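G., before I forget:
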Amino acid sequence: MVTRGFFSGRRPPSDTDARIPPGQYLEQGFPVLSAGPTPRVRTEDWSFTLKQGPKPLKKWNWAEFNALPQSKMTRDIHCVTAWTKFNTPWQGVMIDDILADAGIEPPTAYTLALSFDGYSTNVPTKDLVTGKAMVALLYEGKPITADHGGPARLLVPHLYFWKSAKWVNGLQFTERDEPGFWELRGYHMYGDPWREQRYSSDP
Amino acid sequence: MSSEPSPQSPWQAATIARIEKRTPRVTSFWFKPSRPFTHLAGQHVDIRLTAPDGYQARRSYSIASAPQAGAAVELAIERLDDGEVSPFFHDVAAVGDEIELRGPLGGHFIWEDSDGGPILLVGGGSGVVPLMAMVRHRTQRNAAVPVALVFSARVWDEVIFRDELIGLDDRRDGFDLVLTLTREPARRPADYSRRVDAHMMAQAIERLPKAPRLAYVCGSNAFVSAAAQALIDADVPAGIIRTERYGV
């Protein structure tokens, strides 16, 4: 349905058009969104736990986690509130390297990312491995600020950005695809920006 | 792109039924959906504009009106000078225009009178909009739930819904309005003239008969960060604070 009188000149340049998923616009800033107040997590209190159901598999403190192999990922990110930001540079520990350090193969097909503030979000395990995702520790070469999820946040850049849980403190492997915080509140179970899977009613 | 939405599409045409300027920068638009719905106070809708070549821009706007079956929904849209969608509404949109809308959306920043209270609402600028839906919902349901609204605006003339809010405050029925102006002196005796802080939050909480059961904070990111921290400093548990941040 064409909107009467809407002739925006805000189209992205044609060379970048292909990088912007449907319904998104290009943002230069880095907006902040969260369901509650920003938790202030001190690195001395920080830990990261791999779990299968309720059973802990391995736990790292901040120093141990930072000693794991670190990788860099520069990716476009897509927020469900319709902004897309190009070339965001992150550094952290690939999920593959976390699993390798724990000496395990992914035990189930589904994962819940867990956060210090009680937030959770579900991601299929296959979307976390084979170089697709990391626990990010640095943004633009500097520690991630608390409002952007520091000290550590999940980075799953090929899905809408609410899947990249802020203040992450663990991954829990689950037998079934269990909805997380936003998924229980009307957002999509998978969240592929290229298929515009924003809300639970989207195919 | 020019075809009508299919019956399965979550998008629907809504007709602009009324337009009313609220403040120099905020105008309310009432949308009459072709497929009526009943929302929850605090929910938003997505709006999608389509240019003749198929280019689309979409934005989310909170609903200001109280939930009411079959009613037009009020969106109070602030003009952002560097915006793409809000200038269209302020400069071009007219009564009778059809706009594509999707919703209602959102399942976290919501309040129903059955959720109980007391509740503490903290809004900055146009962040008051979803809180207004909650206040109106309370009024419409004759709910006895105690509510305090701390509303920060730059100046008196930018207090959105000012007459309506002051009228509700004057009823003394358990709704308390606390205005704070950041660039002008306070106009009413118990109001403030400064940015929100922990002392202001503590005094707002004292107006409630007991500690709040839920707190809702909405506004710009900077406002929400400051207000949420002020609440925590006023001993409000982080777990009862729900936030919604507008824009950058």
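Residues 45-195 of chain A form a domain with the Sulfite Oxidase; Chain A, domain 2 fold (CATH 3.90.420.10). The two ends of chain A are 21 Å apart (CA to CA).

More on Monday.
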